[in-house]
Amino acid sequence: MSEMKFILAISFALFFIGAYGFLTRRNMITMLMAVELMLNAVNINFVVFNKYLFAGKLDGLFFAVFIITIAAAEAAVAIAIIINLYRKFKSIDEDDIDTLRW
Amino acid sequence: MSEFFLYLISIMILVFGVLTVTSSKIFRASVYLLFTLINVAALYFYLQYEFLAGVQIVVYVGGIVVLIIFSLFLTHRVGADLPGPSNVRMLFTFLAVLFAFAFCYSLLLGNEFPEVPFAGSSLSIREIGKAMLNYGEGGFVLPFEVVSVLLLAALVGSIAIAFRTKPKNS
């Protein structure tokens, strides 16, 4: 197995670890952590494809940088929402938040 | 020798990733997330993307994890255990994730990538900076500006969401 395929396999495994965490956790902050793991797996994918298939170009690198920026914005908004929900419900378990449930 | 480092980094990424999503104490989970992100930065160093490794450490390790830990202290009693998921949900999620991984892995093994040999030295910061603000061929100034406006809007929006409004006196 070449080095490229090995690192791609690692990034797939990290992505599905994140998916497992997103589906099993009930707490919003831990779900956010699982999403960060998945975003990191995607970044590894971009970097590996850029390095091994398009060595002279910068597209994969810049996609990874922009994904990191958007992840930072997403984390800020998500945590603002979580803190607001905590003030309202005194809990951030997603099963307790049922205002829109009929 | 460099192979050894690759295997070490990969094992650490996977072990700390699994601990992040399975740990029953939320503060430990966030510290395991920190270790996972540091190991991803080490993988970027291994691939000779030093700029991206620096961005990863500054933004993820220094920014996002600290933000998560702050919000965790605002919303939890830190010592308490999280309630675990039910066994049925854990089993079915594990099976679904395992099948999805096996499917992707078989696709990966069946595919042949036209790898080009790595030519020249690693990417210099000068080259990256020129490409980032270049508006010609192969430049990235438009996504750079768009993402900066997005970041500003997201930060203002998060302040607006988390702002405590005065309770109306009724």
Description:
The complex is a heterodimer of chains A (102) and B (170). Chain A has helices spanning 3-24, 28-53, 59-89. With 102 residues, chain A is mainly α. The model of chain A has no long low-confidence stretch (mean pLDDT 90). In chain B, helix 2 runs antiparallel to helix 3 (50-75). Chain B is extended, with a radius of gyration of 21 Å. Chain B has helices at residues 2-22, 26-46, 50-75, 87-110, 125-132, 141-162. Chain B has six helices and no strands. Chain B is an all-alpha fold and 170 residues long. Chain B starts with a helix and ends in an 8-residue tail after the last helix. Chain B has a single domain (2-87, 123-162), classed as Four Helix Bundle (Hemerythrin (Met), subunit A), CATH 1.20.120.
Question: Can you lay out the helices and strands and say which pair or pack?
Answer:
The complex is a heterodimer of chains A (102) and B (170).
Chain A: H1 3-24, H2 28-53, H3 59-89
Helix pairs in contact in A: 1-2, 2-3
Chain B: H1 2-22, H2 26-46, H3 50-75, H4 87-110, H5 125-132, H6 141-162
Helix pairs in contact in B: 1-2, 2-3
What distinguishing features does this structure have?
heterodimer; A: 102 residues; mainly alpha; Helix Hairpins; 3 helices; B: 170 residues; Four Helix Bundle (Hemerythrin (Met), subunit A); extended
Summarize the structure.
The complex is a heterodimer of chains A (102) and B (170). Chain A has helices at residues 3-24, 28-53, 59-89.
Which regions of chain A have little confidence, pLDDT < 50, spanning 5+ residues? none
Number of beta strands of chain A: 0
Portion of residues within helices of chain A: over 70%
Along the chain, the helix and strand elements of chain A come as HHH
Q: Describe the biggest sheet of chain A?
A: none
Taken together, the total number of domains of chain A comes to 1
Question: What's the CATH superfamily of chain B, by name?
Answer: NADH-ubiquinone/plastoquinone oxidoreductase chain 6, subunit NuoJ
Radius of gyration of chain B, whole Å: 21 Å
Describe the global form of chain B.
extended
Structural class of chain B comes to: mainly alpha
At CATH level 2, the architecture of chain A is Orthogonal Bundle
Overall pLDDT level of chain B: 88
Number of helices of chain B: 6
Number of domains of chain B: 1
Strand content of chain A: under 5%
The span between the termini of chain B is 72 Å
State the name of the first-level CATH class of chain B: Mainly Alpha
Largest Cβ-defined interface: A-B, 68 and 80 residues
Under CATH, the topology of chain A can be stated as: Helix Hairpins
CATH class of chain A: Mainly Alpha
